[in-house]
């Protein structure tokens, strides 16, 4: 088959034609002939079907028949000479045979024959193609006269690309001829044929030819030709060119289409006047159809050009933008004349009709690259566009009352419009005015988003004496929203995206989401007054002028809620008292909103009360009361009770729905029942958000709905739903807040929340992912707590942070300690985790874990964090004997040498156990004890710290206490106290004492320790308790009789607390060896005294009082003198500071309102911690934000610090100064103390927020470097700003009758 016959050539021609048809799309997409050649040359590499083409199969058979014998001979010769080719020799064989074959005579003869034959085949194909092309052009000329001249959507859309048609490559000489034929002086038929040829040519060839400049000029002339066929053809060519040309060319084409002078002449020549009265414009009218096509092509280009113009010089973009703006600025002086005079139809009206929502402008303003050019040109040359847009909005606002009946109809028709023969063709003047208003509103809404855009304001417009400011514009928009007509029943389901209300709300939402925009545009008194005007009118008993009451009020509430989510907006609503209430008082917006909401819930307003509208206004209140400062303002209104009452009413309605009976009419329609359930959930959701703050959680608990609210939160949490549309974070903070209290943790347990967290942890820790195959095993964890378990670990830390949580979940619960554990048995409770992961005291527990070391390390890490809370540790130690278990674990973890004692095995578990043993045994602040690190060191001795296997601890972990020397300053305090004893103390003595105290604290605070400090504290308490004005609690009769209290017994928890206190006191050299009985006696007296002032708790939530750390602190402060300690505590119990410094003082106390006494929520949490969060947000916002992001709350760590009197967090001198400061300066200093400590830790807090271990850091690490004296001046500043609020609220803990 070395020669081709005539039949072979015909077959080759057919196969080649098929191949070219198969790759037609690839070739036609090539921008040049060279690129098309490259595509064909690399077809085998890029086309997976290459070897399936018949042409390729034919050539393969031809090569095999021509060279098969040669290849066999060469292969045989090579294998005889070299042996058999295997392995790496295979490549050598192939290369050698290929080389010899290509040098053979047969190969050269085959290639020559193939080339000659293919040249003849290709030439035949080209000739046949030219004949077919001539026939096609003739057919096109015949068909063209039969086509409709108004195929706008088909002919003008740039989606009808030239790449979708068949065309041949064209030579430059042919393009020169086409350019000459398009000369305006040529006959119409000649120009038509030239345009036909041009449309079939590749745009890349046309644009790269030398005659393009003249050709473009002739095309621009043809575009304005009266003959619609010619202009349509030019538009068709331009549309194809746009999609395949670089910007430097398309900008010229765009300039040709949007030629300002040409279009202006066109508008004036055809006298395109704006329709008036009953007249309308017809989109099918030839001149109008041409304009619409031209404008639409321009608009399509405007919307697409933003995707690529940044890759080109800025001057190209400037030309396009300036051409557009100059076109749209045509006729501006006639365009905004008075409505009664005749107006001209302008390009802005047509662009509004084609792009109603100004998508082109939004895209141009999106990127900084183009936005700067647009704003610069608008400011310098085309500000009239902005003025006209503003004027149109004002005109619509002034006339929207008259248009109200027609607006809905226009919206409905315009939303579903489709320009063309199949759609609408007639547009009235009102419709054109409306689309121009929508377009203008969208342009202005986008303009004011940006700083330089807002600089255009104020703007002077006609018929307004004063320029229109930004505030004026927003007020106008809100009033437009108010006047939008109420939709009829049949249209409520329509998503009327072009309704003025929705358009205005879109602008307002955008402004709310941008801080700078909101400050300049929304956070203004006139705007707030406009938003609240309907509320004030309704509260006065009148009806506001609103076309759709429910819609307008719901949108108002939505805007107010968005304003309330920001700090600046919330402050404006809470504190700016520029509004006049229904009673004529000047009040803030927050008071007005909550009054209106209460009236809505009570159904006392003249308005159709729908659940959606009520829910919207409750949501506004919620954005305020879920912050500490907002709750402070709204608390007097008892909104939580109003919402709870509405929830109870709704809940009873849904419960009363009877079981459906066949044949009986339903009591409630399914839709109505759904709305009742939705309203019930909405009320629960809003009630739940009271739990965002400590005081709010107390209010929620008092409603009796905390269990239902937590259950609802759990249902949303499991679905991973947001807290609200305005909330950036999930339910983490709220869960942590709830878990801090006894009723909260009980609600979390009963809802299933705790079980879900435990199961998730167990799945991540022990089960792994079920969908991972064995071929992709899980990586070996490098960290003690793997990243997959970190989230569950932090959730458990948050959950068990409070001793109340540990008590409710583990108190009086024995470990299962089974003899055998099923491998499939999952942990479902905290008790199970304690049994399976922490207290591993049998082989059965070890064998039940798939990842024993990793899981046990996790458990020990959790135990370490739990033991940081001394009360939690006492409970766990008293129930489970943790210390003995850990010591035994250390003793078991040694080698077994043939003789002598074994050595400790240093592994992850022994290091973790060692850390916990030191932590729970050594008591002290940052400079009083040393904790061993958890990480090993490099070198020969990776763990140089002593291992603990028996108590007492090695001295390595305990620092020596410095001796306290008497100094001049101490003598000064002593002299002051001595002089006070000798003279009668008057009312000014306390002021003198405070000044003297502050002076010593500022100069030499480290001398304010020892006996002098005890004397100072004792005298201050004596002085305050002797004054009826300073006594807060009524006097209580208590006879100190040692024999009667000695019969009382201390619980195991209290006994362990005594041991820790004695250990710390002896370490500080404050107590004698025989002080145990004295401390026990003091605690028994305190219990006896306080038990006489406690109510009988009917609730199961008695709370977990733990050890009395304040009494132990006083005992150490008085150097173990039980008489002085008891005397001071009894006098101190009458003072207000005792309520907050001495936690057992108000535990279930008769002095509290009965509902608070039975709630098990202590004032330290609901008052002190609440104000810590409030002040932290105002004074140290970065720290507050860090807590929010971590899911932890400042109240949790503060309750822990205060509950154990800063033991293990501060050194003993700082603890003494903390107590003395709060007694002398006032109980509100407890709040300032916590804020100061968190401010001191700011850098550490921010760093550990990044590493996602903030909770662990705050609980495990002491407050390094903190000195009360260094922050006393800062605390005095906080006192000046906040004392009136904080101290008054602390005083309000007693019932008003007291």
General description of the model:
The chain has seven domains: 6-79 and 92-132, no CATH class; 179-258, no CATH class; 280-332 and 343-416 and 424-472, no CATH class; 526-656 and 673-728, Alpha Horseshoe (Leucine-rich Repeat Variant); 750-771 and 780-896 and 903-957, no CATH class; 1042-1157, no CATH class; 1163-1208 and 1226-1292, no CATH class. The longest helix has 40 residues, at 105-144. The radius of gyration is 43 Å and the shape is globular. Helix 60 (1181-1190) packs parallel to helix 64. It is an all-alpha fold and 1298 residues long. The strands form two sheets. The chain has a two-stranded antiparallel ribbon with strand order 1-2. The protein has a two-stranded antiparallel sheet with strand order 3-4. The chain contains 66 helices and four strands. A hairpin with a 5-residue loop joins strand 3 (579-580) and strand 4. It is found in: Cytoplasm; Cell projection, Cilium. InterPro entries: BROMI_C, BROMI_M, BROMI_N, PHAF1/BROMI, Rab-GAP_TBC_sf. Interacts with cdk20, which promotes cdk20 stability and function.
């Amino acid at each position: 088959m070395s020669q081709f016959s005539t039949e072979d050539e015909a077959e080759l021609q057919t196969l080649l034609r098929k191949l070219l048809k198969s790759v037609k799309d690839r070739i036609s997409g090539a921008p040049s002939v060279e690129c098309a050649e490259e595509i064909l040359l690399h077809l085998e590499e890029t086309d997976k079907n290459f070897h399936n083409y018949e042409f390729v199969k034919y050539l393969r058979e031809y090569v095999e028949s021509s060279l098969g014998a040669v290849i066999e001979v060469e292969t045989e010769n090579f294998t005889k000479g070299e042996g058999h080719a295997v392995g790496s020799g295979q490549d050598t064989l192939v290369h050698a045979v290929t080389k010899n074959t290509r040098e053979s005579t047969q190969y050269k003869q085959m290639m020559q024959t193939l080339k000659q034959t293919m040249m003849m085949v290709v030439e035949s194909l080209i000739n046949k193609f030219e004949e077919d092309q001539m026939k096609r052009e003739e057919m096109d000329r015949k068909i063209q006269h039969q086509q409709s001249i108004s195929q706008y959507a088909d002919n003008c859309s740039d989606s009808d690309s030239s790449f979708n048609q068949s065309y041949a490559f064209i030579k430059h000489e042919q393009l020169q001829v086409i350019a000459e034929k398009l000369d305006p002086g040529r006959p119409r038929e000649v120009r038509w044929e030239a345009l036909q040829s041009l449309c079939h040519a590749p745009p890349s060839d046309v644009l790269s030819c030398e005659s393009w400049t003249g050709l473009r000029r002739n095309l621009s002339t043809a575009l304005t030709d009266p003959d619609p066929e010619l202009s349509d053809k030019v538009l068709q060519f331009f549309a194809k060119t746009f999609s395949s040309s670089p910007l430097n060319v398309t900008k010229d084409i765009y300039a040709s289409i949007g030629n300002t002078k040409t279009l202006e002449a066109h508008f004036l020549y055809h006298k395109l006047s704006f329709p008036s009265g009953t007249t309308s414009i017809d989109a099918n009218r030839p001149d109008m159809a041409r304009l619409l096509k031209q404008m639409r092509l321009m608009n399509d280009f405007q919307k697409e050009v933003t995707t690529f113009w940044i890759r080109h010089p800025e001057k190209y973009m400037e030309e396009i933008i300036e051409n557009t703006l100059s076109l749209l600025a045509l006729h501006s002086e006639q365009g905004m004349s008075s409505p009664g005079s005749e107006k001209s139809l302008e390009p802005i009206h047509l662009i509004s009709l084609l792009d109603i929502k100004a998508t082109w402008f939004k895209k141009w303003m999106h990127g900084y690259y183009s936005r700067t050019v647009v704003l610069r040109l608008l400011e310098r040359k085309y500000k009239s566009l902005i003025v006209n847009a503003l004027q149109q909005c004002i005109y619509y606002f002034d006339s929207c009352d008259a248009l109200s009946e027609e607006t809905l109809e226009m919206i409905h028709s315009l939303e579903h419009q489709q320009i063309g023969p199949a759609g609408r063709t007639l547009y009235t003047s009102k419709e054109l005015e409306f689309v121009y208003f929508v377009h203008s509103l969208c342009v202005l809404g986008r303009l004011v988003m940006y700083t330089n855009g807002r600089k255009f304001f104020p703007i002077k417009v006609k018929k307004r004496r004063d320029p229109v400011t930004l505030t004026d514009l927003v007020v106008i928009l809100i009033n437009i929203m108010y006047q939008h007509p109420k939709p009829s029943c049949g249209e409520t389901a329509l998503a009327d995206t072009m309704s003025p209300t929705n358009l205005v709300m879109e602008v307002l939402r955008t402004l709310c989401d941008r801080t700078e925009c909101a400050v300049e545009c929304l956070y203004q008194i006139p705007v707030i007054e406009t938003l609240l005007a309907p509320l004030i009118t309704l509260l006065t008993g009148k009806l506001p002028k609103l076309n759709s009451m429910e819609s307008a009020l719901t949108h108002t509430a939505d805007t107010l809620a968005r304003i309330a989510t920001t700090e600046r907006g919330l402050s404006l609503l809470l504190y700016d008292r520029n509004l006049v209430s229904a009673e004529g008082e000047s009040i803030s917006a927050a008071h007005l909103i909550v009054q209106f909401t209460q009236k809505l819930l009570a159904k006392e307003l003249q308005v159709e009360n729908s659940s959606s509208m009520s829910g919207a206004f409750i949501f506004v209140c919620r954005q305020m009361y879920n912050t500490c400062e907002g709750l402070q303002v709204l608390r007097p209104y008892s909104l939580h009770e109003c919402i709870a009452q509405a929830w109870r009413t709704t809940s009873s309605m849904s419960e009363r729905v009877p079981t459906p009976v066949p044949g009986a009419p339903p009591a409630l329609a399914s839709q109505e029942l759904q709305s009742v359930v939705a309203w019930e959930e909405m009320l629960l959701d809003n009630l739940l958000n009271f739990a965002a703050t400590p005081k709010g959680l107390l209010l929620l608990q008092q409603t009796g709905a905390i269990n239902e609210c937590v259950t609802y939160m759990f249902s949303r949490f499991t679905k991973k739903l947001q807290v609200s549309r305005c909330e950036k974070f999930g339910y983490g903070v709220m869960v942590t807040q709830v878990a801090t209290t006894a009723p909260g943790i009980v609600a979390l347990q009963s809802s299933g929340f705790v079980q879900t967290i435990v199961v998730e942890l167990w799945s991540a820790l022990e089960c792994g992912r079920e969908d991972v195959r064995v071929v992709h095993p899980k990586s070996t964890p490098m960290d003690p707590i793997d990243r997959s378990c970190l989230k569950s670990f932090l959730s458990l830390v948050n959950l068990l942070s409070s001793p109340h949580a540990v008590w409710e979940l583990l108190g009086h619960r024995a470990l299962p300690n089974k003899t055998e554990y099923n491998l499939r048995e999952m942990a479902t409770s905290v008790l199970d985790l304690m049994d399976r992961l922490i207290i591993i005291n049998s082989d059965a527990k070890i064998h039940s874990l798939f990842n024993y070391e990793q899981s046990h390390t996790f458990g020990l890490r959790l135990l370490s964090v739990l033991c940081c809370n001394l009360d939690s540790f006492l409970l766990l130690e008293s129930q489970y004997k943790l210390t003995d278990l850990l010591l035994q674990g250390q003793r078991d973890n040694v080698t077994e040498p043939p003789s002598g004692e074994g050595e400790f095995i240093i592994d992850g578990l022994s290091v973790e156990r060692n850390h916990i043993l030191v932590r729970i045994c050594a008591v002290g602040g940052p400079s009083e004890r040393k904790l061993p690190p958890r990480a090993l060191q490099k070198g020969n001795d990776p763990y140089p710290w002593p291992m603990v296997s028996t108590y007492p601890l090695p001295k390595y972990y305990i620092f020596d206490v410095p001796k306290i020397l008497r100094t001049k300053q101490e003598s000064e305090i002593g002299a002051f106290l001595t002089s006070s004893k000798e003279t009668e103390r008057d009312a000014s003595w306390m002021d003198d004492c405070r000044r003297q105290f502050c002076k010593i604290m500022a100069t030499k605070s480290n001398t304010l320790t020892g006996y002098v400090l005890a004397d100072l504290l004792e005298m201050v308490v004596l002085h305050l308790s002797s004054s009826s004005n300073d006594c807060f609690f009524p006097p209580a009769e208590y006879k100190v009789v040692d024999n009667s209290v000695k019969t009382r017994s201390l619980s195991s928890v209290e006994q362990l607390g005594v041991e820790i206190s004695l250990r710390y006191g002896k370490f500080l050299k404050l107590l004698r060896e025989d002080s145990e009985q004295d401390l026990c006696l003091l605690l028994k007296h305190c219990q006896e005294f306080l038990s006489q002032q406690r109510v009988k708790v009917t609730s199961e939530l008695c709370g977990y009082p733990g050890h009395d750390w304040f009494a132990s602190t006083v005992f150490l402060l008085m150097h173990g003198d039980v008489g002085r300690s008891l005397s001071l505590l009894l006098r101190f119990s009458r003072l207000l500071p005792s309520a907050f410094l001495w936690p057992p003082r108000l535990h279930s106390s008769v002095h509290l309102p009965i509902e608070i006494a039975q709630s098990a929520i202590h004032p330290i949490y609901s008052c002190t911690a609440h104000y810590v969060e409030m002040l932290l947000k105002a004074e140290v916002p970065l720290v507050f934000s860090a807590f929010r992001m971590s899911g932890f709350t400042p109240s949790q760590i503060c309750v822990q610090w205060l509950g154990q009197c800063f033991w293990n967090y501060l050194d003993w001198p700082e603890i003494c100064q903390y107590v003395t400061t709060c007694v002398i300066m006032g109980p509100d200093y407890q709040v300032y103390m916590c804020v100061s400590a968190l401010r001191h830790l700011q850098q550490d807090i921010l760093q550990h927020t990044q590493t996602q271990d903030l909770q662990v850091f705050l609980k495990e690490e002491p407050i390094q470097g903190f000195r009360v004296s260094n922050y006393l001046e800062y605390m005095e500043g906080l006192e000046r700003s906040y004392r009136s609020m904080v101290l008054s609220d602390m005083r309000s803990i007693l019932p008003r009758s007291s």
